[in-house]
Structure formats: structure tokens, C-alpha cells
Amino acid sequence: MQSSGSSAAMGEDAVPVSDQPMPDKNGHFGPYGGRFVAETLMGPLQELQAAYEKYMRDEEFLAELDQELQHYVGRPSPLYYARRWSERVGGARIYLKREDLNHTGAHKVNNTIGQALLARRMGKTRIIAETGAGQHGVASATVAARLGLECVVYMGAEDIQRQAPNVFRMKLLGATVVPVESGSRTLKDALNEAMRDWVANVDNTFYIIGTVAGPHPYPAMVRDFQAIIGREARTQCLQQTGRLPDALVACVGGGSNAIGLFHPFLSDTAVSMYGVEAGGEGIQSGHHAAPLNAGRPGVLHGNRTYLMEDDNGQIIETHSVSAGLDYPGVGPEHAWLKDSGRARYVTVNDDEALAAFHDLTRTEGILPALESSHALAYADKLAREMSSDRIILINLSGRGDKDINTVATIEGINL
Amino acid sequence: MSRIAALFDGLKADHRVALVPFITAGDPDPEATVPIMHALVEGGADMIELGVPFSDPMADGPVIQRASERALKHGVSLSQVLNMVERFRQDDTATPVILMGYLNPVEIMGYQKFIDRATTVGVDGCLIVDLPPEEDTDVLPLFRARGIDQIFLISPTTTDTRLDMISSAGSGFLYYVSLKGVTGSSRLNVDEVRQKLEHIRTRTDLPVGVGFGIKDAETAAAMAAISDAVVIGSSLVEYLSQRAGEADKLPAHAREFLVTMRQAMDAVRTESKL
User: Fold this and answer.
1) Which residues of B touch A37 (CB under 8 A)?
2) What element of type H or E holds A62?
3) Most buried pick, A397, B90, B183, B244, via CB within 10 A?
């Protein structure tokens, strides 16, 4: 299903998104996506899909969403020409889509506010969410507080240790944070546990998935809520430069910020798209989170996509300096865009991302999230090969304040 | 006729209900799995459901999750599970064996390779939890060609439209999930299950088994009074894991556990006949 407009926030001259019918009615993006779940989840997913299709055509709902995006989230987010950084890199002009300036400091809230409003329309009084680094958990707890909904966040016990400030933030917002002790005790296990909760409590509960993965309709629904990023960026780029960018660059964990940026540009065939996966300690090391570059197709969390898995089909652990990219799968639409060649997927290692983190902070006074720093590091390489009349547009998906402890630890600094 | 269909025909003639124990292959000890399977048959099992360990068992509760994790620590793969069935078949060619697991290990092995090997070793049915009929169109004909039953779940939220689709895709029996939740949950409502089963029977000719949430002999007996098969999983897995230290006694424990269930189920069935 296509995104629906929310005119004030998206700009007057927004264009329709791609005319490709993706996904099909069963949620397939070519061979990827779909709805690979136990029968116990079929009823809840059908109910969700019906509500989503209804309300995404409902003027009153869209107006409500638009109000929240403007006045609560703070949209539209600026498109910022990073002049000093562009000059320092040398080559193309680099523009940053400032999703870091949204309420809660990342793109995640575009989706959580949309799904929480949908939950309220469906009469659900309780929302649940999974979280890895805690950003989606915070964004879910935030909108739950805003709408007066009960909120339970599942988080791997391992991640709870690593992300104490976000755990406390969620608790301040009134959410219950449940430690997940199963499996590798990280994001993928938190997602499993949230699904189990949903099956048992579907009568009053709405499950807010944080990325463009999971069973249909989640990949399409989360994309549609995030596509406001690309719609705004497209309009803003035309307004500021009189033309479309030559390349889009975004980091890819599950891939919601990247799809949000890419999707409204899919029919603009002259615009190249680069999704940047976490190369961790290098693809050769095996310690990375780059399923599109080094994984193979399989089925996990309700959809078929590229996965990090062993020869027996068991899901393996991932590594990245950025917790938000530490996921063994990727949204099925990215799998499709990769195979079709419309987008290219590359990797950036931990050390390159850290260098870009420092570089942008020093030259522009903008502290980027370590996730977004992967996109910056790749854009740095790309810009050098392009002339100064070319434009690169990066999705700066989140702010880096949450990462200062990680960076300090790596650099041996005791805060 | 498949071994599963023959089993249900025979049970019907005897007014008995199938007792189907579930164990996770390789838990608590890969060497114990085949002896436990034989012991379960001695204890009264009519069919064995063998769980294939997976790293992300989304539809399972904590007991079977942990069993899966323990089995994976022993390095148990899908191909080893098939070898276990092969060893079981050396001494038992009568008892149907079904595999229950998730799609990804099958997908990585390759469907045709999996089905060929499953046929050779004597697997009778497969319940692939996260493969609903809608996504199954390429795979179902492969199972049918080899006479392996595909067993599907029916849940309390399954609509009649889906029930009809599942009933025509599935064979062997239908597996009714007796509650909204994961395996091993504890909120079984016998009256609700009875009503639902009565409704399901108006739309299918397949036998209907019940599982998820059958904790003890009492609930097993209650389910035996209203269904064609009773699946006992988490409580058996938990019982065996608590006795994992006595590796050589595991088969004896499994047999004892099952005898209690068998007696309770047969008693209630005899009463209802009288």
C-alpha cells in the first residue's frame, strides 16, 4: 500500500511515491517479506492490517497524525547543508536530513507516534515494544505517556547492562522494562518475547515493531510512517538547490530510516541509493552485522530476508559498535532493492564510523549517533569521488548524546 | 494409507484417544533421545512429536525455549534429528513420528533434500510452526508427493475462512492450540476448548488434536474426553530436564510420566462410553 499524505508536514509540492506495487497483497517484496508466523498470530495480524488499511485512508486520522508530527515531533526536520564538512571532505556537497532534531532525538518517533495513534483507534489500551539500544523503547514509552497508554518494553538482559541510561529514561516515562534472558539476550530475543506477549494479550495489546521487519503488514506500515523523511527531503532539496540529489546515503540495521528516506525517491532513477551496513571489525573477521553483504536469505521474525545464520539455519550473533545496527536480519524491502539493483548496500567498519563521528562533531558542531556515523563515513568516501556540483543527501537518523559513554570507553576515557 | 491416518482409524474403532508426547530432540542429552522415544511408546504413546531445535522459537514458552538452547549447545542440527528418527525406526516401524520446528533450518537444508531424507528415515508428518498455508504453496506438493502429512495449527482466533483453507491443506490431523499464548502456558479453559472443537468438527473430517497448555493428568483427561489426540510437551520436557543428572534413568522417568497420563485419559474415555 502506498503512503498517504499529511500535507502540512510533507510540503505542498510532494510527489506520489513509487508506482511499484510493493509489497503485493500478501506482503511480498519479490521473494522476500510475507507472513511466516504461527497460526496464533494470524488473527492479530489480520486485525492490524485491516485497521492500518482503513486508517491510512481516513482523513481524520491523517490530520491527527499530521498534528502530532508537527507539534509534538517537531516536523518538518531541517535539511542542512554541511558546508564546512563538505569542504573538508572535498568533492560533492553534502546535505544532512536532521532526524536527530526530532523529539526523542531520532527518526524512531515518526513510527511510534503513528502506530500508537493507530493503537488508540483500535481501542487497545496497552502497547508493547522490543528494543535493542533502547531508542525505539524510549520512543515507544514517550508516545505511550503522551497518549496515556500502558507500555511494556522487552529488552535483552545483555542490552540492559549496556544501555542503563535509556532503561532509566523508559522507566521515568512510566514504562515497564522486561529483561529477556532467552537466547543471546539481545534485540532478536526481545522481538521473540514481544511476539509471545502479543499472542497472549492481543485483546487489549498493540505491538509496536520498531523497524521495517517482522510479518506483513509491519514492513509496509513502518515504511509508510517513516516515508515522511524522504518526502520532506525531496521537497527541501528541490527548494534549496533546484534539483534532486545525486545520491542518498543511510545506515541500515533493520532499515527503517533508510527505507523512510529511499522510498519517495524510488521512481527518481537518476538518484543513487546507498544503504550502509555495520561492518563491525570487518567482514572477514565474521564480527559484523551485515546480512545484505555477507548473509543469505532465510526466514526469521515472520519474514523472508537476508540473515546472519550458520550452515544449519540457526541465527548467529552480530557485532557492531552501534547497538542500533546490531540485528541479524534486515527489512525485506531492502533485500528486494538489493537484488533488483535499485539500491546498493555497502559496509563501514567500527573504526571508520568512529572517525566520522568525531569529524562531523568537530567541523559542524553536530554530534551524530554511531548508527548515523556509518552513513557519514560512507558518504565521506563517496563524496571524494564526485565533483562539487554533485549533491549527496545523508539521513542523519539520530543524535549521538546517547553514545558518549560508548565512545569514551573505546577511547579509554573514564567519565 | 499413511501411518498417521491408520493410527487414527484404529483408535476410533477402539474408542481411544491418541497420546502424543513432545520432546525436544537432543535435550537433555542427544544420546538419550532415541531411548526416551522407545520408553514413551512403552509408556503408552501413540505417536511421537520430536522438536527440532531452533535459535529463535517464537511460538514457544520458556520451557521449550530452554530445551532448544540446551540441544543447540550440544550442536544438534536438523540433519542429526533426522538421524535420530532413522535410529528409532530400526526398532520401531509402527509408531508415527512427526517433526515440529521452524522453517529456517529446513529452508537452509533445502526443501527437496529435507523431504527426501525425511522420507528415507521414516518421518510421517511435519508441523512447521511458522509456515502457514499461504506461504506453503511451493512446499506442500513436495510433501504430498512423498506422502508426508503436513500438520497445521488452528488457534482460538482462526476464522472460518482460514479454517477451511487449513483443513484442505493439512492432512494427518489438525492441531488445535488450546489457548491464546505460547507452549506451556497455563490458562486452559476446558469449556471454551470444547465449544471450539465442536465448531471445528463441523468444518473438517480430519482428526483434531489439542496441545499447548496441557499440564497434568487431570487436564489430559479433560482434553481426552473431547478430542482425538492430546499433545503433552512442556510438562514432559520440564520433568525430564529436572532429572537430567540421571542420564541412564531418563527413559524410565519418561515411561513413568506417560503411564500416568495414559491411565487418566483411558479412564475418562471409558467413563464417557458407559
Assistant:
1) 58, 130, 132
2) helix A59-68
3) A397
Q: Check CB contact under 8 Å for A46 and B159.
A: yes
Sequence-ordered alpha helix ranges (H) in A295-349? 332-340
Contact B130 A299 (CB under 8 A): yes
Residue from B135, B140, B207 nearest B172 by CA: B207
User: In angstroms, rounded to a whole number, what is the distance separating the alpha carbons of residues A320 and B54?
Assistant: 24
Q: Please tell me if residue A43 touches chain B, with a CB cutoff of 8 Å.
A: yes
Question: For the residues B61-68, what does the mean pLDDT come to?
Answer: 94
Question: Could B180 and A199 be called an inter-chain contact, meaning their C-beta atoms sit closer than 8 Å?
Answer: yes
Q: What is the pLDDT of residue A184?
A: 86
Host H or E run for residue A128: strand A126-131
Report the complex ipTM.
0.95
Q: Is residue B272 part of a domain?
A: no
Rounded-to-integer distance, Cα B192 and Cα B188, Å: 8
- Sign, CA torsion B19/B21/B22/B25: negative
Task: Search chain A and give the residue with CA nearest B187.
Answer: A200
- Domain limits at B186? 3-265
Q: Which residues of A touch B69 (CB under 8 A)?
A: 182-183
Who among A26, A36, A189 is closest to B130 (CB)? A36
CATH assignment at residue B146: 3.20.20.70
3-state SS assignment for residue A415: coil
- Inside any domain, residue B273: no
Residue A313, Ramachandran bin (φ over 0: left; ψ between -120 and 50: alpha; else beta)? left
Q: Which residue of A has its CA nearest to B78?
A: A312
Instruction: Flag whether B270 is in a domain.
Output: no
The yes-or-no verdict on residue A12 having pLDDT over 80 is no
Q: Which residues of B are known to be catalytic?
A: 49, 60
Dump pLDDT digits (tens) for B69-114. Answer: 999 999 999 999 999 999 999 999 999 999 999 999 999 999 999 9
Give chain A's mean pLDDT: 94
Q: Which residues pair with B229 in a beta bridge?
A: B18, B209
Tally of structural domains, chain B: 1
Considering the domain boundaries, does residue B216 fall inside one? Answer: yes
B62/A183 touch (CB, cutoff 8 Å), yes or no: no
Nearest to B158 among A43, A189, A302 (CB): A43
Upstream peptide bond of A76 is cis (omega within 30 degrees of 0):
yes
Across the interface, of A39, A189, A201, the residue whose CB is closest to B132 is A39
pTM reported for the whole predicted model? 0.94
Size of interface A-B (CB pairs under 8 A): 123
